[in-house]
Write a structure and sequence with these properties.
The structure holds three protein chains of three kinds. Chain A is an all-alpha fold. Chain A is built from three helices and no strands. Chain A starts with a helix and ends in a 5-residue tail after the last helix. In chain A, 40% of the residues are buried. Chain B is an all-alpha fold. Chain B contains three helices and no strands. Chain B is flat. Chain B starts with a helix and ends in a 12-residue tail after the last helix. Chain C is globular. The chains are: A mainly alpha, B mainly alpha, C mainly alpha. Chains in contact: A-B, A-C, B-C. Chains A and C meet through helix 3 of A and helix 8 of C.
Chain lengths: 97, 90, 312
């Protein structure tokens, strides 16, 4: 049983880290501020989300699991709003390269 | 499991280090704020992984603070966003 | 090499790179962003050193408040277009040599530390239970070295008065010139309506949890300050004038209650800031609650800066 839980953690956390890599590569290689923003939102949602889901089985008790999930929701929510603000600032200051 | 979690944390840290390049290069100020977002989310991920690796639940509180403060910092910086750096400006 | 050592080495490397970038970057915006990132990542270092309380404070202060203070300073410099004469080469050489010497001295000291450092930590932990607290850091702050904590809070107030004294004479008592968003921004208003309730809950949780786990009045207060600053930046609320009564009351309520509890120590216990045996924890929690409020208001006003214009 413990082995199965560990396998789940390893798979989920690894996938999460892969999305982190995808987002970072996007941040470095995409040509435009807005496209980089698009790549970065994957990090907040899927990257952190998969890591959180992978860590849930290792969490200590219900409270620990709830805290993990609420941290993820907070990062998603604030990340989404700040992304909108960044996009708005980009548009207002003219077309970017 | 502990070793794997540390290894994952190292990987995320390397990703954050790569994101630093965008802070130095990114022509527009908005690009730099994007990198701050990446480093904030990455920092949260590293702290959560460390919390599980060392079985210290208190570290999740640090991750919570980091999430709040990274947002606050981004909003504070967005007051000053200007267009792409002109070649002559510093 | 085990993975945790590898992680620590990687973390150290990244931080040195960020620090170097912040110093050598061209342009104040880049330096500021790198400095903030440095503060945010330094928290991970404190976590690795098993100092979670310090990590919480570093995230809040080093990442948030200090960065905002520097942002304010940078914008004032831009506005005045000050001409800074660059330091001459001999001066820079001397500064570099001094830094290298200090680094070498620190390295020698760290390597020369005894295997078992002399410490009071075990004695401190043994006697912690009699105060009802579970967090050794809270024990040191409020039981063993309570006088230092009281004086720190007074120093914080004095720093605020110092910042206020930078105001021009005719603006005294007016509204601080915190830079806010010029145009009303519905997205930002949404954020300022959604995030502060979460932030206030986290701040209160931090203060409450500080009795038994990492946390405390300072960390909680800083989160409260950050949330209030967010509301003010989004123009949901105006920055209050510094002669407003409720502002002044909130500023002093923390140190005042702490001082009162300390003076009551003469009556109910042995000396100043001594607690009667069974009532130590409730008294400490009351003092911390008041201090959380005061610290929040003080830090937010420190960032807001000196008053610039009178209330209309």
């Amino acid at each position: 049983m413990k082995f199965a839980i560990d396998i789940v953690t390893v798979v989920m956390v690894s996938s999460g880290v892969v999305f982190f890599m995808a987002g970072t590569v996007g941040l470095l290689r995409f040509p435009d501020t807005l496209t980089r923003l698009h790549a970065l939102t994957k990090v907040d949602n899927l990257g952190l989300g998969l890591i959180v889901f992978g860590l849930l089985p290792q969490a200590q008790g219900l409270l620990g699991a709830l805290k993990l999930l609420s941290i993820w929701v907070l990062v998603q929510l604030s990340g989404a709003i700040v992304s909108q603000l960044i996009a708005q600032a980009t548009q207002r200051s003219g077309r970017q390269t | 499991m502990t070793s794997f979690l540390f290894a994952a944390a190292i990987f995320v840290l390397v990703m954050e280090a790569l994101g630093l390049v965008r802070i130095l290069r990114g022509p527009a100020d908005a690009d730099r704020i994007l990198s701050v977002q990446l480093i904030g989310s990455g920092g949260v991920a590293v702290l959560l992984l460390l919390s599980a690796a060392t079985q210290t639940p208190a570290i999740m509180d640090v991750a919570l603070m980091l999430a709040l403060l990274a947002t606050f910092v981004s909003v504070a910086f967005l007051r000053d966003v200007r267009p792409s750096d002109e070649p002559t400006n510093t | 090499m085990t993975y945790d050592v590898l992680f620590d080495l990687g973390l150290a490397g990244v931080l040195i790179a960020i620090a170097a970038g912040a110093i050598f970057a061209r342009g104040s915006f880049v330096s500021l962003v790198l400095f903030m990132v440095y503060g945010l990542l330094l928290a991970i270092v404190w976590v690795r050193l098993s100092a979670v309380d310090v990590a919480l404070t570093e995230t809040a202060i080093g990442g948030g408040v200090t960065g905002m203070l520097l942002l304010g300073a940078a914008s004032r410099l831009r506005a005045t277009k000050g001409s800074a004469a660059k330091a001459g080469f001999p001066a820079r050489l001397a500064a570099g040599a001094l830094c290298i010497l200090v680094s070498i001295a620190l390295g020698i000291v760290v390597y020369a530390l005894p295997e078992v450092p002399p410490t009071l930590a075990p004695i401190a932990k043994e006697n912690l239970a009699s105060s009802g607290l579970g967090n050794p850091v809270a024990g040191v702050l409020f039981v063993y070295r309570a006088l230092d904590t009281l004086l720190e809070k007074v120093v914080l107030l004095l720093a605020l008065v110092g910042v206020w004294s930078l105001a021009q004479d005719q603006a005294w008592g007016g509204m601080p010139g915190l830079r806010v968003y010029a145009k009303p921004n519905s997205i930002l208003v949404f954020l300022a309506q959604v995030l502060p309730p979460v932030g206030i809950t986290v701040g209160i949780y931090m203060f409450w949890a500080g009795a038994n786990r990492p946390g405390g009045a300072f960390q909680g207060g800083t989160v409260l300050a950050a949330m209030w600053l967010l509301v003010m930046m989004a123009r949901l609320r105006e920055v209050p004038a510094i002669d407003t009564l409720w502002v002044r009351q909130l500023l002093v309520v923390g140190p005042a209650i702490f001082l009162l509890i300390g003076l009551l120590g003469f009556v109910f216990a042995d000396s100043f800031l001594a607690y009667p045996p069974d009532h130590a924890k409730p008294l400490i929690v009351i003092a911390e609650a008041a201090l959380t409020l005061s610290i929040g208001v003080t830090l937010a006003l420190l960032v807001a800066g000196p008053p610039e214009r009178l209330r209309q």
